[in-house]
Structure formats: structure tokens, C-alpha cells
Amino acid sequence: MSGSAEILCIGTELLLGSITNGNARWLAEQLATLGIPHLRQQVVGDNRDRLITALREAAGRCRVLITTGGLGPTPDDLTTEAIAVAFGATLEERPEAWAAIEARLAHRGRPVTASLRRQALLPPDAELLPNPTGTAPGMIWTPRPGFTVLTFPGVPSEMRAMWQATAAPWLRAAGLAEGVIASRLLRFWGLAESDLVERVADLLEGSNPTVAPYAGAGEVKLRLTARADSDTTSRALLEPLEAEIRGRLGPLCFGADDDSLASVVIELLRQRGETVAVAESCTGGGIGAALTAVPGASDAFLGGVIAYANAVKQAVLGVSETCLAVHGAVSDSVALAMATGVRRLTGASWGIAVTGIAGPGGGTEAKPVGLVHIALAGPDGSSSEGVRFSASRGRPWIQMLTTGEALNRLRLRLLVE
Fold this sequence. Notes:
alpha/beta, Alpha-Beta Plaits, 5-stranded mixed β-sheet, 6-stranded mixed β-sheet, elongated, Maf protein, Molybdenum Cofactor Biosythetic Enzyme, Chain A
């Protein structure tokens, strides 16, 4: 058992697939960062007996159990009650917990109801795990020697705030870590996962640091992980490995960790003192949305036009009727005219334009679903190219890939000019 940890996520909605279990993923990353071995994850619905069984079984396997979900005021919020029953404890109202709940309700202008009061019930010797952003507190409780349970609500923002403020410091002090783990996520665009694996195949065989590939939404990633006796040492192990990978892959690696294609493009434009505007047809504003998701995007992103109808392409962007009639809306000629038009309209240094067939209908033999033309207009001229994405994964997939490909093409232009 050693210092191992397990994650238990509670909620019937998780079993039904109604929501994605992002909490387990985030907690797993946090445990890895702390250097705490994490050996098992489990999901249990809102069922008291099954939850009690899961808790007792975990107590026989691990040192720390982290639960999320089931801490609210409704009848299906059973976590605290089930934990007490599983380990033969009573529950009592904690005045400090109820006072915090009342204060939170007053701040939000919400009435105090009897159902909310049950959130203040905890085992007598449990340590309160405060919730700085919500009403449901958690607890840190050791019902048996060598076994501690930490409970969190299922709301991701509340869980993360509680983890950072109280749980992570407690876990660091508990001495559960087996070394310190450092991790680095390298992000790539423009190659398949199989191609990436082939280029770094020899590096995948290392034991410390390790390299693991992942496929994402249009991008591929390499997770670099090292373990050592200190944070400085573990990070030092990653540096030459990252340098080697970047040297092999060059500009195919667009960033690391929390970088996105949009954030990298914004930063490159900011460094150059330049701006960009977008003219979108098949993506319906996806490129603009990606750019404006970046904090400080207004430094470099001026705006855009969603020119879905040909009439808008003509009236707003200046695409000629002749161009549309001769080449069709999905063509290099129209994409170039759109990119040039939005650049002229906004005064941006760069114009990006996309026009294509996202499906599921509308395709022909000459212009099938998945065909997209991507154009860039910049200080040194303009260019456009048709790209074919697979239609098998549907309309949102084509739109997402088009957004990424358009941003990546601008990124590559900015790197060489």
C-alpha cells in the first residue's frame, strides 16, 4: 500500500455519460506533481450501499482516498453519510462549517434553508476542508490508522480552490511523496501521432525521464516526466530531453504546457507589433473565438467577419460577383479575396480567411465535404491553399481542424518573416 492514493468520483451522471469526468484527470495530474503514487480510479453512482462498499475496499488498499461529488444539500448527496457509516462514526454539526455556509449564502443573497444545513455535518474528529468559493465544505479524516479520506464537491472550480488552499499543503506535509515529479507537455501540429512516435521512438524507451505520446483534438503531444529528490533536480533531467525533441521536430512543436496555437500566434504578433483580422465562412467564428480566448488578445486581434452567405462576402469583404461565379465560394480565389478584404477593412497587418464545405451535405465529386481553402494576406503578399480533411468525423471536427490549421499557417509565416 505504501503512500499510494486512489480517486473515487461519485455521481450517477458520470456513469450515464451526462458529464465528462474532468475531475479525475485533474486530480491525477496534481498527485503526479506532488510525487504521490496513484494506482486506481473508480466511479460510483449515487447509491449508498455501493458507495459504502467502495469506501471500505479502498481503505484496505491505499493510504489516501480522494473523493469528489455528493457533498451538496440534496437527498442524493450521500458521500459524508456513507463515509460515516462505512467506518462506524457519527455525524455532528460543526459550528464553524455552518457559519461559513451562512456567510456564503448571505454574500450571494440566497435564503438559508434546512437542506443546506446538512452540509455542516461531519465526523467529530474530522478536519474541516474549507470551501472558499462554494457552500459545501469537505473534510480530511483518518478513520483508521494509515488511511485518510479527503472529500471534495464535484464542482470543478470549488474542488480546485479547496485543493490548492488546503489539501495540497496537507499532502505535502504528510510525507506521502516518493520523490518529486516534474512534467512537461510538448504540443505539435502538422503530423500524425504515428509519425511523431517514429521520430522519437528511441526516447520512448527511457525510464527516468520518460516520454509518452498522446493524441489530442487535431494536435499531438508528448508528456515528459522525471522523478528526483528535489524539484530542481527533476526539472534539470527534463531540460536536455526537451532540447533533443525540439531539435528533431523543429517548428512542428508549437508550444508547451498551457500554450495553444492561438496563444502562440498572439504572442508572435505582439512581439512583432503586428495585428490580425479574420474572415470566416465554414468555421462560423471559430478562429475569432480561439483568438479571443487568449487573455490580452486585444493587443493583436482586431476583429473579424463571419461571411457565410455570398452576399456578405461581396458586400462586406469586396469579393467580386465574377470571382464567385467563375470559381465558386469554395476556392482559392475567393479565400484570397476574403483575406485581402478583411485586411483592408480592418487595417490589420494580416488577414486570415477560410471557406469550405463542413458537411454533412453540400459536397460534390470535385469539391467534397472536408475541402477547405485557407488564405493568408500579409505585408509581403497573399497565398491560399486547399486542404482536405476527413469527412468521417463530422462537421465539428472539420471546423476544429480548419481553425487550428489556419492559425498554424499564420504561426509558420510569422516564424520565417
